[in-house]
Design a protein that fits this description.
Blueprint: H1 2-19, E1 22-27, E2 34-35, E3 38-39, E4 46-51, E5 55-56, E6 59-61, E7 79-80, E8 90-95, E9 101-104, E10 108-109, E11 112-113, E12 120-123, H2 131-140, E13 153-156, E14 161-164, E15 169-176, E16 188-189, E17 197-200, E18 204-210, E19 215-216, H3 221-236
Parallel strand pairs: 1-4, 3-12
Antiparallel strand pairs: 1-2, 4-8, 5-7, 6-9, 8-16, 8-19, 9-12, 10-11, 13-17, 14-15, 15-18
Length: 237
């Protein structure tokens, strides 16, 4: 009986994990865009940003100030997509709230920001706060200098990430300094792919993230749970 209960619990966890989805957002695909530029997704899903071309960032802002980094908001750092490689740089987080979240590219070229040219992204926008209104505000009110992002330096993403949904804390590299303890999202290096590193204008320091505010760090523990479930099923058969 104990064995059957344990097997049932593991199967339930495996079913929950299988129901989750990963939504891929292409960054810089065909221009200064996020593709798709808006996404509605439930708690538990993962949003993965793949950097396709040039040098961009995924930087959290607010609906009211589209091109200004949110205080303690998350930031991928600048990731350049190298030419002639099969594996694209990637950055991801797991959704743990239905709150509307807002992001932009903090890159500035010759005094003009990518954000002011409409390179913004919305997660779970609402009827009152739409993506179109967010983009229009970004293009009309970018502010002096165009956009505000992280500090100067080099962004480097690690494929290793750890997190704990139970404790509400996640730890990962690829988070620029000043981005820890985000309100609305906390970032993690992508654990499902092998990202590369890119050089840009934002420093990527390892930092502790506060989860439970919109997104939590992607953890490798899911693989362990599924492996354990498979082992138990194998013993039963």
């Amino acid at each position: 009986m104990r064995f059957s209960t344990a097997a049932t619990s593991l199967l339930s966890v495996a079913g929950y994990v299988a129901a989750q989805q990963t939504h891929v957002i292409k960054v810089g695909d065909g221009g200064l865009t996020f593709n798709p530029s808006s996404l509605t997704a439930p708690i538990g899903d993962t949003v993965q940003f793949q950097f396709v071309a040039k040098n961009h960032s995924v930087t959290q802002s607010t609906f009211a100030s589209p091109c200004v980094m949110k205080n303690q908001g998350v930031d991928s750092g600048f990731l350049a997509a190298p030419q002639g490689v099969d594996q694209l740089p990637a950055w991801s987080f797991t959704i743990d709230s239905t709150d509307d979240l807002w992001f932009f590219c903090a890159q500035i070229v010759n005094g003009t920001s990518h954000c002011s040219q409409g390179m913004v992204f919305a997660l779970n926008p609402t009827p009152e706060k739409t993506f179109d209104a967010f983009k229009a505000a970004a293009m009309n009110n970018a502010g002096a200098g165009g956009a505000a992002g992280g500090a100067n330096g080099t962004a480097s993403v690690s494929a290793s990430a750890t997190g704990s949904a139970a404790s509400g804390a996640a730890s990962a590299s690829a988070t620029p300094s000043g981005a820890a303890g985000a309100t609305g999202a906390s970032s993690a290096a992508d654990a499902s792919a092998t990202p590369t590193s890119g050089t840009g204008n934002a420093a990527a320091d390892s930092a502790s993230q506060n989860a439970g505010n919109g997104a939590l760090g992607l953890s490798g523990n899911v693989v362990s749970i599924l492996s354990a479930a498979g082992l138990v099923l194998g013993l039963m058969l």
